[in-house]
Structure formats: structure tokens, C-alpha cells
Specification:
With about 280 residues, this protein is mainly alpha-helical. The chain is built from 14 helices and no strands. The radius of gyration is 22 Å and the shape is elongated.
């Protein structure tokens, strides 16, 4: 595999608060739960307006249920999350975010057909929703359609109001690397880093790519920033060790090596260190 190992994808995704995201609002713009258009007290309510108000109330009830579903999903309590999504859709069958949430749950449960159907329904209802596009892109990437996934990540990133704009760029980088396109992957990681200089996925991969090309100053910049900003893992300590060893800083390399042996003695990286690999 390229610079990013499959075993590390999950770790860094978790550090970055997840590659997939629970839906924020019906349009992907973090709409406030319960937000609705209120008629003025002196304004007559037409039949059409009454219908709109009823739909808004239905959406409010659906959003409350979806908030609960997202909480249970994050706790990996999938049975309860599914029930809450069903309640959400019972209140509003055309709620895009709820269908997107179903896609996430089914993806985690390994039910690919149901996940695909749910995401497709969500996108038919709201084609430009950033959360749905980001999450469907991640589903495509996880099911061997890496190049197809990029389109959805970039569509998510185009929304100037998206609350987490670095995430789709980060995910595009991961999936481009999986597809073997290092140049595109690096460009996507650079964009993620520009938007969020604390993004661990971008920093790790940019350090790896720079180290691979022998650009040691750049590799050290990203690796040091990553190790200072986050609790170290076996993977990041191994990265720091290799960067400092190549850069000729024996003291810094020795420090990373000692931490790796002490904190992660059974890790694959500790084994590589013991074997003298780089």
C-alpha cells in the first residue's frame, strides 16, 4: 500500500473526529434543531401556509429523533439508533439526513445493499448536502470505488457553509492514495491542512510523502507538529523516529525510539524498530 497503511486509516480518522459524520441538518448546513419559519401574529395563515407549518413541525420532530439516533450511533448502539431513525422517518419520510443516517448505520453493520439504497435515497432528496456526499463518498471508498468517491468528497467541499470543510478533503486524500494516485492524494491533504492546520490525517500523510521524497525539512515540520498536537501512537512515534534518523538528529530519534519501546512494546512498529527497519 502507499504511504498510508490500512491499519492506520481508522486511527487517524478517529483523531480527526471520524471520516464519516452524523448529519447536521436537513441541508447539511448545521441547521438548528427546531428552527422554523414563524408567521407574524397579524398575518393570516393560508391553507398552503398551514401545510408548510405542519411540514416544518414534522421536520422538527424528525430532527429531534435524528439527534438521538446520531448519539446512539456514535456510541455504536446500532439497534437503538436504527429505531430512532425509523421514528424520525415516521415523522418525516422525506428527511434526507435521516436516510443518510440509515446509510451510515447499515455501512457499519456491513449491509452494503441497504446502505447504498439509503444513501441514494438521501441524495435524490438533497443532492448537494455536504454530510451526505461526504458519507456516501466514504462508503464508496470502503467498497472498492475509490475514484468514484472523490466526486462526492469534492461536492461536499464546495459548500462554503460546511462546518467541517477539511474533512472531505482529508477523505479525498485517503481515497486517492488507496487508488494509487499519490499526486492527487497529496494535493487533497494539502488543502485539508490549509483549512485545518491541526488535521492529523493530513499531517501524517504529508510527513510520509515528504519523507519518501527525501524532503526532510517538510517531513520534520509535519511530524513534529503532529506529535506535539496529539497523544502519540505507535504509528506516529515510528514516523517521528524515521524522520529524525534520516535528518541526522540522533537524540530526537533515540527519544522517539525509547517512547515506542516503552509505550507500545507489542506493536508492529516496535518490532520494526527492533529489526532495524526503516
Amino acid at each position: 500500500m502507499t504511504a498510508l497503511r490500512a491499519s492506520f486509516i481508522g486511527l487517524l480518522a478517529a483523531l480527526a473526529a471520524g471520516c464519516a459524520t452524523a448529519p447536521a441538518g436537513s441541508d447539511g448546513q448545521a441547521a438548528a434543531p427546531g428552527a422554523s419559519r414563524a408567521a407574524r401574529a397579524d398575518e393570516p395563515v393560508s391553507n398552503a401556509q398551514a401545510s408548510e407549518d405542519e411540514e416544518t413541525d414534522a421536520r422538527r420532530r424528525a430532527r429531534i429523533r435524528l439527534d438521538l439516533a446520531a448519539s446512539y450511533y456514535q456510541q455504536r448502539n446500532y439497534n437503538v439508533a436504527l429505531e430512532e431513525v425509523r421514528q424520525s422517518l415516521g415523522a418525516d419520510p422525506n428527511y434526507p439526513a435521516a436516510h443518510g443516517m440509515l446509510g451510515l448505520i447499515y455501512m457499519d453493520l456491513g449491509e452494503r445493499t441497504r446502505s447504498e439504497e439509503s444513501f441514494q435515497r438521501a441524495l435524490r432528496l438533497s443532492p448537494n448536502d455536504s454530510d451526505i456526499n461526504n458519507n456516501y463518498g466514504w462508503f464508496l471508498c470502503q467498497t472498492g470505488r475509490e475514484r468514484q468517491s472523490i466526486e462526492h468528497f469534492l461536492r461536499a467541499a464546495r459548500n462554503p457553509l460546511y462546518a467541517t470543510p477539511a474533512r472531505p478533503w482529508q477523505n479525498a486524500g485517503l481515497c486517492a492514495m488507496r487508488a494509487g494516485d499519490e499526486a492527487a492524494g497529496e494535493a487533497h491533504f494539502q488543502r485539508a491542512f490549509q483549512l485545518d492546520p491541526s488535521n492529523p490525517v493530513a499531517m501524517f500523510n504529508l510527513a510520509e510523502l515528504s519523507l519518501k521524497r527525501g524532503e526532510l525539512d517538510r517531513a520534520k515540520f509535519y511530524a513534529t507538529r503532529l506529535l506535539r498536537g496529539y497523544e502519540p501512537s505507535a504509528e506516529t512515534l515510528w514516523l517521528g523516529y524515521r524522520v529524525e534518523r534520516r535528518a541526522g538528529d540522533r537524540d530526537a530519534a533515540a527519544s522517539y525510539a525509547a517512547q515506542l519501546r516503552r509505550r507500545f512494546p507489542e506493536s508492529r512498529e516496535a518490532g520494526l524498530l527492533a529489526a532495524g527497519s526503516e
